[in-house]
Amino acid sequence: MRVLEIKDIYKSFDDLRVLNGISLNVDEGEVVAVIGPSGGGKSTLLRCATTLETIDKGSIKIGGIELDYKNRKSLAEIRGKFGLVFQSFNLFPHYSVRRNITEALVSVHKKSREEANKICDNLLQKMGLSDKGDSYPCNLSGGQQQRVSIARALATSPDILFFDEPTSALDPELTAGVLNVIRELAEEKMTMVIVTHEMSFARDVADRIIFMDGGIIVEEGPAKDLINNPQNDRTKAFLAGYSD
Length: 244
What we know:
With 244 residues, this protein is of the alpha/beta class. The chain has helices at 42-49, 72-79, 97-107, 113-126, 142-154, 172-187, 199-205, 223-228, 233-239, and strands at residues 2-13, 16-27, 31-35, 57-62, 65-66, 82-85, 160-164, 192-195, 208-213, 216-222. The strands form 2 sheets. A 6-stranded mixed β-sheet has the order 6-7-8-3-9-10, sandwiched between helices. The protein has a 4-stranded antiparallel β-sheet with strand order 2-1-4-5, covered by helices on one side.
């Protein structure tokens, strides 16, 4: 089943065109990594797919629902189909870990407090954070905060998870823990789109890699093939400094 359908989307900021006719499909259970230089349009693509930016032209569907900015019901439905993990965690600092995870379940999705807590406990165990439910973000390491962010994104059982450079704010030791969590989700066939600069991770975990530059998809293909044997000269130049 096709979970994400992006068709010929364009996005400009003032006179700067950032996305120039991007089309991308992601099927259920597929992991797609998006790589490329800074300014190539990767994060803007993710922000458009998750309704944080409005597209100028084209169409986006998630879970079979087409994005319609003028239709509040459509927006609410499509936002319930995905989870988003930011590079900067975006946790509520005045909420405990538990409340960060359960707040939307109770206030938006109308779960009972008991059910929300049960979902939270299961996710904290999955993230290796069973003892952190009553802690506040300021008492956690960056890696722990990012794992809480992933738990929060998973709490609503989304059809697809989006990650925007999930390890860019972390040091190498903490990066490994977060990448291991994402790797486990991939093994469980969670549908994911991951913007990342971790080339070995993208090669080993993703089913497919998209290389973006200048607001277009320059090259795409099976992850290992694209990393080990890129065909486009621009992709080759970008990956020239990469070593396993």
